[in-house]
Every structure is written in structure tokens, then in C-alpha cells.
Design a protein that fits this description.
With about 425 residues, the chain is mainly α. About 50% of the residues lie in helices and about 0% in strands. It is built from 16 helices and four strands. The strands form two sheets. Strands 1-4 form a two-stranded parallel ribbon. Strands 2-3 form a two-stranded antiparallel sheet. Helix 1 packs across helix 4. The radius of gyration is 21 Å and the shape is globular.
Amino acid sequence: MFLLVSHFPQRRQMDTSSENMEPQRQTLKPVTSLSLGRYHISEEYGFLLQNPLKELPDQYRPWMEIARELPHLIESHQLRAHVYKMPLLDSRFLKSHREQRLAHLVLAAITMGFVWQEGETQPPKVLPRTLAIPFVEVSRKLGLPPILVHSDLVLTNWTKRNPEGPWEISNLETIISFPGGESLQAFALVTVLVEKAAAPGIKALVRGVEAVLQHNQDTLLQALQQLRLSIQDMAKALAQMHDYVDPDIFYTVIRIFLSGWKDNPAMPEGLVYEGVTTEPLRYSGGSAAQSSVLQAFDEFLGIQHCKGSGDFLHRMRDHMPPSHKAFLEDLHLAPSLRDYVLTSGTGCCLMAYNQCVEALAQLRSYHINVVARYIISAASRARSKMLSHPAPHALEDRGTGGTAVLSFLKSVREKTVEAILHPNA
């Protein structure tokens, strides 16, 4: 989304021992400005992949044929049989970035379906080599872990029915789906709309960094006002979740396909990627913390989270495209907006800053309400046997990323509220 001396990470080799390593925080030359295109971020689309591909080259048709039929194959308990018959395809012919992103989405979706086809009871311990080898190869090329991540399900998984039409649920569709019908489609697409609503905020954030560097208070004020509006628009987009996604279908049908094999009692040992390693690997499932948006806002606004929550958020950066992670790291090197606001002597900038922080706290409060409805309340109904579908229990009160979800979200909101500035009178 944003000129500075940038530090793009080296293409990350697959960590076959652990994903728990603390991210390396380098002390580098201070940021002089930010250019969104450098980080593969768009002023119009934000972190969303622009114009995602819907088809892979013809030699990868076996993957696409399975992915297109994923909901049916899972629901009819036929997916694993199809995966065992898959040919071993060479991923080196995936040349473009968009081809590699679609391949990661396709292979990730097939993997999640393969693992969770029968629910959480006796999930397989080994991912077959015809799926594991190309999935790990594509993951290495992209610097992503070999599991379904936010950049797959959301950033890469959207298309407009009418390219000239509006950004509305009715004019969007997913490229790859899971069981869950319209609720699954809407869960992904509402999140797409939240990401799209964040794009003006990311653009404003860059203007804000430049304004601080240039000591331009008028530009900073405008940037903060635009950021606040963008955060509020994100909340409006998120509200559509209640209109289109059934909480019970999300909890009993959809959620397990977003779950990983780290911090998950259903798969305590992890998963062996056959042909890659003989030892099981553990990876966190999909999580909203894998979106770069709120972490970018936190970095810009100088919001610091407690150690537990902060460690988890930083770990989730390894589940982001490396260019987006690099953007967050370079934002961290930018001059402190909070210090500038406190020392600028202008009350209007301080007020605008606080309004941004308050809007972000409100968004996080709304997110807590959504989670309470779609996980906590739905889990309660499942325990009372009031749901028509059998519900998974392993992650009953936890997020699909493996966190104790409510305590994590409340901690993050609390630290956001604490960031509101109260200068001495």
C-alpha cells in the first residue's frame, strides 16, 4: 500500500522444527518514506491480491478438478480417495506470482479438506506426498507456511461477478469453497470487504508517516481523519457477517476447515508431510491476526500489546506474504506518531489521533461481539445439543489460530484503549 530503505526478508526456508521462533527485529536505517507498491500493496485494494486468477495452467488440471468439487467431495467422504490417486505434479511450471498464489490456495484447501474430512475424530497423521511435496514447494516460493492462511482464504479467494459492478456481497464470489454453502462464501467475502474498506486507511497511514517526517501538521490531520473513517467503514463491513453468515453453520461446519495442527488437542503431534520430512510439523490455523491491516494500524498508532498477545501477533506475521510482513517491520522503524502528537503542541492533531484509537477500540469491541456470537454462544448451544450438526469439541472455546480467543481479543482491546493520550492540562 506505500520511499525508504526497506528490508525484505529472505525467502523463508520451511522450518521443519518449529514455528515458535521469535521474529528477528533488526535495527536498521530509519525509514525515510514508504511506497506501497514496493510491498505489493495497492492504494485501491489494500492488501487484497489484485485480480486473482481463477484457473491454473492446464498441466495442473488434476488439482483444479478436485478443488472445484471440494464441498461435494468432503461431504460425500470421497476427497481422501481422490487425493490418494492424485499424480505428483512439478510446481516449477508455476511462473507468475498470481499462479503461485492460486496454487497455494488450491493445495491448502485440498489439504484442509483431506485432514478434516471426517471431522476431528482420528484425523490422518500423514499428508500424502503427491499433495505434500508440491504444497511445500509452492509455500517455499511464496514464503508462506504449508497450511491454509488468511492470504489464501481471503486475499486470494475473491472475484467480481460483474467487473464494473459494486463492491457488494451480491457481486462477489469465492474462487475455492468448503462445506457451509452460502455462509462459507459470505464468511470469506465479508472479510474481503473489510480488507477493501481498510485500503483508504492504509493509504492515509502512509501519508501520515510522511507528514510526521516533514513536520506537516495539516497533512497529518487529514491523514488521521481519513484513517478514522476507514476504520469505521471496516466496522460497517464486518457488521454484514450477521446478515449473511449463520452462527451455527459457522461453528459446526465451517470452523474446523480453518483449524490447524498446532495448539489443537485433536492433532497434538502435528502432521507429517510425506516426502518432505519424517517428523510431524505443527502450524497454526487461519486467524484474523494473520491480516496485516490491524497490525499496520497498531504500528502506526504506537499501540503496544502485552507479551502473550504480542508474541502471538508477531508469530502470525510468518503467516503473511513476506512483502506485507516487511511493510509492518518498516512501519515499526518509522518516527513515533505518538511522540510527535504529544510534542507538536496542536490539540487538533491529538484529538484526531485519539479519535483513531477510539475507532480502533470500537472495531475491536465489535469483533469481540462477533466472536461471542459465532463461537462462544454457538459452543454453548452445541453443548446443549441444540444444533442440527455434530460440533467439533477440540477447539471449543479457542480461535482457529489456537488462542484462547476471548481473553486474547479483550487483552488487545484493553491495550488499544490504554493508548488514548491524556496530556497534562
